[in-house]
Each structure stands twice: as C-alpha cells, then as structure tokens.
Amino acid sequence: MDAARSFTYMLKETGGIGKLVIGGLLLFIPIIGWAIVGGYFIRTMRGVAGGDDRLPDWSDFGGLLGKGVLAWVGVFIYEVPGLILSRLGAGGSLLSSLWSLVLIVVLPAALIRFAVTDNFGSFFDFREIIDFIRVNLSNYIMAVLLGIVAGIIASFGIILLIIGVVFTIFWAMLVSAHLYGSVYLYRVQAAPSTPTG
C-alpha cells in the first residue's frame, strides 16, 4: 500500500488539477453540489479498490448525485445514535463522544463496503465490516489516521481567504478515497469459519 501516493496522485495525473478544481467549485453549491462530490468520492474509491487510481471523469452527474445521496443517508444513520445520546445530559454527552470514536473506526469500512459492492445494504453488514477491519488492521488504521491528517492539512485552505478551503477539502476527500480504496485493493481475506460438529 503506497500511502504517500494517496496525497499526490491527483496532482500528477494529466488533467488532475482541472478535475480537482471542478470538485472544489461544486462544493460552493449547497446540497446538490455536495451530494455530487460525495458521489465522486465513492466512485474514486471504487476505482482505486479495483486497481485503477486515475481520477474518474466528471460525467453522469445524475449517477454521482444518487450515489452521493445514498452515502449521506448511510452516514447519517450511523450518526443518529450519537445525536440521540447527546441529548441525554452529561452522561449522554460522554456516550456520544465514545460513539464518535466508534464512527471514526467503523465508518470508513462501511463506506468501502458500499463503494465496492454498490449496495446500500452493505453499509450495515456489520459482520463483514468488522472482519474487514480485523484482518486488515495495520493498513486500515494507517488509512484512517492519514485521512485525518489530510483533513487537518485541508483546514489550512482557510489561509487562502476562505475560498481556498473548498479546494483543499476536496483534495483531502480524494486522499481519503485513495487510502480507503487501497486498503481494499491490498486487503487480506478473512479465513472462512470451519463448521464444527
């Protein structure tokens, strides 16, 4: 797994800067633009997971929109328990914080499953998700941590008079898409359970 490439692949590709600019511009469009970008994130991850880390073309915007909305819905469902817990006073706030840590660990794997299977139900195939994390733990942890680092780096786009932050946010999304897709590409398969009796 070439983690360093995840930070630069979109800049080295012919036409990559243009695709990056388009994604950043779409982030200026609330809701619809954000959903399209979310779909592009899923499409990029799926490509990398299949061994092709070229940025997808900006095409089939309806498909990107639909995929982005499904990803949003899946993420929101994961966030609902934390939202409920946060309304239960001090103890609930603590539990909500713990749930947020669970999401940091589990949600990337759920997104990977959704991207590679193209099946919304894969968001909630918890046995497959946990097995995937368990048998690919070192690469998975590295991908999650580096995705967080990319997000921190992206925040420096604020220095560019706010406007620059949408481009650095999209760059960070592409970094994470490559990292997560690479974990799947270089995954180790869980050993099938042996029947007893």
Enumerate how many helices there are, as a single number: 9
Q: What does the average pLDDT come to?
A: 90
Strand segment count: 0
Order of SSEs: HHHHHHHHH
The helix-and-strand class reads mainly alpha
Low-confidence stretches: none
Oligomer: single chain
Largest sheet: none
Helix fraction bin: over 70%
Descriptive report:
It is a single chain. Helices cover 72% and strands 0% of the residues. The chain is mainly alpha-helical. The protein has a domain at 3-70 and 125-185. The longest helix is centred in the middle third of the chain and has 29 residues, at 89-117. The chain starts with a helix and ends in a 12-residue tail after the last helix.
Brief description of this entry?
With 197 residues, this protein is mainly alpha-helical. 72% of the residues lie in helices and 0% in strands. The chain has nine helices and no strands.
Features:
0% strand, 197 residues, mainly alpha
Q: Which helices and strands occur, and which strands form pairs?
A:
Elements: H1 3-6, H2 9-12, H3 16-26, H4 32-49, H5 61-85, H6 89-117, H7 126-135, H8 137-154, H9 163-185
